[in-house]
Design brief:
The complex is a heterodimer of chains A (about 160) and B (about 180). Chain A is mainly α. Chain A folds into two domains: about 1-100, Helicase, Ruva Protein, domain 3; about 110-160. Helices cover about 65% and strands about 0% of the residues of chain A. Chain A is built from five helices and no strands. Chain A is elongated. Chain A starts with a helix and ends in a 10-residue tail after the last helix. Mean pLDDT of chain A is about 85; it is low at about 20-25. Chain B has about 180 residues and is α/β, with parallel strands linked by helices. Chain B folds into two domains: about 1-30; about 30-180, Glutaredoxin, CATH 3.40.30.10. Helices cover about 40% and strands about 20% of the residues of chain B. Chain B has a five-stranded mixed β-sheet. A two-stranded antiparallel ribbon of chain B has the order 1-2. In chain B, a hairpin with a 5-residue loop joins β6 (about 140-145) and β7 (about 150-155). The radius of gyration of chain B is 20 Å and the shape is elongated. The N and C termini of chain B lie far apart (about 65 Å). Classes of the chains: A mainly alpha (about 160), B alpha/beta (about 180).
């Protein structure tokens, strides 16, 4: 009985997903297939200002639909991808770009991971150097002991 | 000392996450800083809500500062903001211009009849194209525009008494101060 219920829920979920998808992408009268591909490629790089976790291509928000229409119109008038991006950035700031340009406000975003990597590498190198130094001292000490006693000693306490 | 190192590392993470939570409560994560601040407002030419045959342009509104308030009857948070506009609107000392966004004029009129009309002037942008030039992406949004047509302040989301007292009124005061050298 639970299995039947689960199956029904799954079917309902799939239907909902299908409907949402159908609404998000309304047909547009593209001049040719290349333009359609260009449109899809461009809208996937742009972020919906309203629902900031979705691209303009995916979002079903009213503003996303308006912006898609605007982009479509601009394409019909021969605007390049860069011109369209500049148009949107002038109105909605760099937030609309999923690939943010390098500015004073974003350098940490761009170079933060590199800084963390460098810091981590530094810490590991220091740790390795310390350990090898200690090991060298320990080996020397045990060799000296061996020479004096000429009997093997337990080095377990070196750890 | 070395034994305590993981503990200090952990405390550092706790501080970082605590700071993140504090920061998020202080800031609206959905508000996008407008690139239009301190720039001339985009030009527009929109019909009046109550007399659709007459239009209002940016040039018509030059000469005196105004607060452009983007609202719609479908917008839930506009209902939250509305009592604040009604109470604070007359005390602001600037014209209150209602910008009806992506709304059927009939719905907007019904909404205003029901909730009251705090606006000095109402314009209608049913297709929502001019709003793109303003960088509007939802409602409510408010723009403070000075006598020369420059956007001096923008608020995204409902104006609360707190926002009016701490942000909007100081911005209006700064503008008025500048106007009388």
């Amino acid at each position: 009985m639970t299995r039947g219920l689960l199956r029904m829920l799954l079917v309902m979920l799939l239907v909902c997903v299908g409907v949402a998808h159908a609404q998000a992408i309304e047909p547009m009268p593209f001049a040719n297939h290349a333009q359609e591909l260009r449109f899809q490629h461009l809208t996937r790089q742009l972020r919906c200002p309203m629902c900031q976790n979705e691209t303009l291509a995916d979002s079903n928000a009213p503003i996303a639909r308006d912006l898609r229409n605007q982009i479509f119109q601009m394409m019909q008038h021969g605007s390049s991808d860069d011109e369209i991006k500049q148009y949107l950035v002038a109105r909605y700031s760099n937030f609309v770009l999923y690939n943010p340009p390098l500015t004073a406000g974003t350098w940490l975003l761009w170079f933060g991971p590199l800084l963390i990597l460098l810091g981590g590498t530094g810490a590991v190198l220091v740790a390795i150097r310390k350990r090898s130094h200690r090991d060298a001292v320990a080996t020397e000490a045990s060799t000296a002991n061996a020479l004096i006693d000429s009997t093997p000693t337990d080095n377990g306490d070196d750890w | 000392m070395n034994r305590l190192l993981p503990f200090f590392g952990f405390m550092l993470l706790v501080l970082l996450f605590g700071f993140g939570i504090w920061w998020n409560t202080q800031h609206d994560q959905n508000a996008i800083p407008s690139p239009l601040l301190d720039k001339p407002a985009p030009s527009f030419n929109l019909p009046k809500l109550y007399e659709p045959t007459q239009t209002v342009s940016k040039a018509d509104l030059l000469g005196q500062p105004y607060l452009l308030n983007v609202f719609a009857s479908w917008c839930v948070e506009c209902g939250v903001e509305h009592p604040v506009l009604e109470a604070e609107g007359p005390t602001l000392g600037v014209q209150l211009v209602g910008y009806n966004y992506k709304d059927a004029p009939a719905d907007a009129k019904r909404w205003l009849a029901e909730h009251g009309n705090p606006y000095n002037l109402l314009i209608s942008d049913e297709p929502g194209n001019t709003a793109i030039d303003f960088g509007v992406y939802g409602a409510p949004e408010s723009f403070l525009i000075d006598a020369r047509g420059v956007i001096r302040y923008k608020h995204i989301g409902p104006l609360t008494p707190d926002v009016v007292a701490k942000e909007l009124k100081p911005a209006i005061a700064a503008m008025a101060h500048e106007g009388q050298p």
